[in-house]
Write a structure and sequence with these properties.
Length: about 500
């Protein structure tokens, strides 16, 4: 098999969509201008092996996506090693489309979302269950299924049959020193890959930094490989013990030039900023990043996403499945592809060996950096304190800066005014139910969900009183956890408003 590339400068910089015809040896790839293309592979992103080798599928840390030739009759598509982004595929008759953008896939295949289906957010956020238990497909209007792939490689032959292949995984970590040596090595390897002069486009580090644990530790690791700048938000989301979340004080200690942003400034934009974040189907909460767009092209963005799951000393979810506590970081996809940056959630490197990381956090050698409370992360605390960051400067209380858009009906207060007006016009004519029976069934399931929730709460309260450990057992799917309000259709709106950026450039493609 071989690749046939068609570059479109009008497409999002890092977007790609491959088209395979049954029995044909040619894989036609439409792509944005910053996708790296070579005879044997294409890729957007970086990985912890040499760039010239051209084998991201062999990496234990793979940031981005693409494909490689695999023998004479197969293509190997490569998804990221973390759970924040995915690869998508859909088969229509004798054609298979594969893309790093769900919206791109819809534009290329001509498929559409089901306007009566309100559960897309729930389906696409099953990435939180880990790479073995996420929902592998979502339904479309035609009845076809759009498949999604997390943390895997996908082999496709000329007969269009798909089979998955496990990612390589690192060895278990020993002590703190072993963990940090290997984490620093990964950071160095990814940074070198991203900056390789053989690339068509090189990337330089940019760190996020807050007053918490995770992003400051990641910013320090970024500084060690040449990062000189950081971005921070001045205020946290309301509802936490402290409002101030600026990482400026820590950035000053680390010697980073910091750019500070207001987390609500996206609301002054006239560009429907929420749409592309919602179009990824994970709640849209990273819309707060949109005002820093000018700083992001050509960057490796170091973030602390998943630090809460990986580095917390107190955890009831020690796992080897890449479980997520919340969908944070999962909405950056379309924004990242358009803007042109690589997302490096540093704690995800080696997360698949979480039991060994958790053991380090609770080891005797880490006790001097353990606080003994519920917000306790000895690994990042040690990392920062040993370079002179004062203990009182970080990790005091848990905070958040993102803005969820899918689980609230207070959209008028949190969306940009122009966005809300456009969304309200979009959602008004949509029927919440396909008919009376659909409404009756949903309300019945909604009631059963609430009953199951109350029963579980009472059983768990009794279990705690008796000193018995018990996990909550939901019998009714989480999609019935809330009513079908307008925010159930924010994904539909986001996709509809993002679709033109793909549909228009494809009209002149020789691949269509």
């Amino acid at each position: 098999m071989r690749f046939s590339f068609q570059r479109h400068d009008e497409l999002p910089r890092l977007a790609w969509c491959a088209r395979l015809e049954r029995g044909s040896p040619v894989v036609r790839v439409d792509h944005g201008p910053w996708v790296e293309t070579h005879a044997a592979y294409f890729f957007e992103g970086a990985w912890n092996r040499g760039f010239a080798e051209g084998r991201p599928s062999l990496a234990t840390v793979c940031l981005g996506s693409g494909a490689e030739l695999a023998g004479s009759d197969e293509i190997r598509f490569v998804a990221p090693t973390h759970m924040l982004e995915r690869v998508h595929a859909i088969e229509v008759s004798d054609t298979l489309w594969v893309s790093n953008s769900l919206v791109f896939l819809l534009a290329a295949s001509g498929e559409e979302l089901d306007e009566h289906y309100p559960f897309y957010h729930f389906d696409l956020m099953t990435n939180m269950r880990g790479y073995r238990r996420y929902l592998p497909s979502v339904r479309l209007k035609s009845g076809r299924e759009l498949r999604v792939f997390f943390h895997t490689n996908v082999l496709v032959g000329s007969n269009l049959q798909m089979r998955t292949e496990d990612k390589p995984i690192p060895d278990n970590f020993g002590d703190y020193s072993d963990y940090m040596v290997r984490l620093r090595r990964v950071v160095s390897e990814v940074t070198a890959n991203a900056a390789d002069r053989a690339r068509q486009r090189q990337y330089t580090p940019l760190a996020t930094i807050s007053s918490g644990y995770d992003s400051p530790a990641c910013a320090l690791l970024a500084k060690e490989v040449g990062c000189t700048e950081a971005v921070t938000f001045g205020q946290a989301r309301s509802g936490y013990a402290e409002d101030d979340d600026s990482g400026r004080e820590i950035a000053d200690v680390l010697g980073l030039n910091v750019h500070e942003f207001d987390r609500t400034s996206y609301r002054s934009l006239e560009t429907l900023p929420e749409a592309e974040f919602l179009a990824y189907g994970a709640g849209g909460e990273e819309v707060v990043f949109s005002p820093m767009e000018k700083l992001l092209p050509g960057r490796v963005l170091f973030t602390g996403y998943l630090g809460d799951a990986v580095w917390n000393r107190v955890s009831g979810r020690v796992n080897t499945e890449l479980l997520m506590l919340y969908p944070g970081g999962s909405s950056l996809g379309e924004f990242r592809l358009r803007t042109g940056f690589i997302h490096f959630p540093v704690p995800t490197a080696g997360y698949i060996r979480h039991p060994s990381v958790y053991a380090i956090s609770n080891s005797a050698e880490m006790k001097p950096w353990a606080l003994g409370n519920d917000y306790d992360r000895p690994i990042p605390r040690r990392l920062l304190e040993e370079v002179g960051v004062p203990r009182a400067a970080f990790g005091r209380t848990k905070k958040a800066i993102t803005q969820p858009l899918w689980n609230t009906e207070a959209l008028r207060e949190i969306m940009a005014p122009r966005s809300y007006g456009d969304f309200a016009e979009f959602v008004t004519p949509l029927d919440r139910f396909t008919g009376p029976m659909d409404a009756v069934r949903f309300r019945l399931m909604r009631g059963l969900y609430e009953t199951n929730l109350r029963v579980n709460w009472r059983l768990m309260r009794v279990a705690r009183a008796l000193g018995v450990r018990m996990t909550e057992t939901p019998l009714i799917d989480e999609r019935y956890s809330r009513d079908r309000g307008p925010s159930s259709y924010t994904f539909h709106w986001g996709v509809a408003r993002t679709l033109p950026r793909y549909a228009q450039p494809l009209r002149g493609s020789p691949h269509n």
